[in-house]
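Need tokens for this chain, all 253 residues.
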Amino acid sequence: MTLRDDLGAPVDLPSPPQRVVSLVPSLTEALAATCPDTLVGATDWCTHPADLDVTRVRGTKNPDLVAIAALSPDLVVANKEENRELDVRRLRERGAQVWVTDIEDVPSALASMRRLVVEALRQPVPGWLDRADDLWGGDPPSPRGRVAVPIWRDPWMAVGPRTYTTDLLTRLGWTNALAGPDADPDDRYPHVDLTDLDRPDIDLVLLPDEPYEFTSDDGPEAFEHVPTRLVSGRLLTWYGPAMIEAHALRDAR
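Here are the structure tokens for all 253 residues:
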């Protein structure tokens, strides 16, 4: 059976995959919660579930192609944003079947994971995915303020437009101050000056613990005008079972 991944590339899966390598931390968590027996490899950044016991294949941007091939996977799962096109191409040249997901917002995350589970893996829809659909299927609440979300320091970078995180924030009632009509739609994670973040028209700066690990003494002290809040980066950026936990942020103050 030849299927098409989110980018329209052909993926040959004559039978349900029994050996899967995931190069995406959030999808690793999703697979571990759905069909754990099929997961044989994951990146070093795949930290959930905490007891995940599979072969590690280095990082999302520098996967160990030799180690992946040695696992003889029926399917490798990747993501357009998190993984390099070069690595996907090299895996395919080695004969691996690679399913690339493309996720820019909450609806596409839910739809993409459903396709991956049902079409590619040929598994029943897991309860966590139905629950995530129920939680995030309604209309966004009224905006309660403007936020900025730095993801790196020295140099400062932040979440911009056309990102899963920005759409998630909207559905939590927050407006991303760096994703407005004046933002470059192609600059999804812009480099910014601190003054772009610490300004009067922003109500709150959310400081996640990944990819840069902001802490109580590394991040908040830089801001003189805008209050800050430390948050879980996983809840802001990971699709999958984390979406259920992330919905609780809707009631946070």
